[in-house]
Write a structure and sequence with these properties.
single chain; alpha+beta; 5 helices; about 30% helix; globular
Length: about 200
């Protein structure tokens, strides 16, 4: 209980600091020409699945806050999948700066005027030193441990089981779903590893 209380104290402290920043921008007359982005690099387990802190790619750990405040824009909620790599092109476009077309991130600017706009059809995450992978769609969360899945797999129906209690990865009824995600993961890894850095990833 002490640990959970410490977590809530941290959240309250962060909330107060954000308030100070926003109030200062207003007091200094900078509110109308300053873009504010509130986000984090990962979520935090509080005992779910017997996990604590960031040790997995389950929902509690992989999801993050992502709020963009742009002067003159009305508040709205966008439910599109986005990734942190989208932050750079978004800030660049909002600031009127050019950015390379070869980066993996996608600008989220269109969602600010049209919150129904979908940037991505899934989110891709990597953890545990590049050995654990997540593909998250509206319907499914597929987690694979190691590129050959030798350390295991997890498949969760996010519509019927949003708390991720039942792993369906080894249920024969969902074998085609698993196979589909395994192929999508191979394609995604090939896509993100294709670059001009001269690195051989052993594809």
């Amino acid at each position: 209980q002490k640990a959970v209380a410490a977590y809530y104290a941290s959240v309250s402290f962060m909330d107060a600091q954000v308030g100070k920043v926003l109030n200062t921008l207003k007091e200094e007359g900078l509110e109308d020409n300053t873009i504010v982005i509130f986000t984090s690099d990962h979520g935090f387990h509080l005992g779910e699945h017997d996990f604590w802190m960031k040790v997995s790619l389950h929902e509690e750990s992989v999801r993050i806050p992502f709020i963009i405040k742009v002067p003159g824009k009305q508040p709205a909620v966008c439910n599109s999948f986005v990734e942190l790599v989208d932050l750079y092109p978004t800030v660049a476009e909002l600031a009127g700066l050019d950015y390379s077309e070869h980066i993996q991130g996608k600008s989220l600017v269109q969602t600010i005027d049209d919150p129904e706009y979908e940037v991505r059809d899934m989110a891709f995450s990597v953890s545990q030193g590049g050995k654990t992978f997540l593909l998250r769609t509206d319907k499914w969360a597929y987690i694979q441990y190691d590129e050959d899945a030798k350390s295991g797999m997890e498949l969760f129906d996010m519509e019927m089981d949003p708390k991720q209690y039942t792993n369906l990865a080894f249920d024969p009824e969902y074998s085609s779903v698993v196979e589909g995600f395994q192929q999508r993961l191979k394609d995604k890894l090939k896509e993100v590893r294709t670059n001009d850095l001269g690195i051989d990833y052993g594809l």
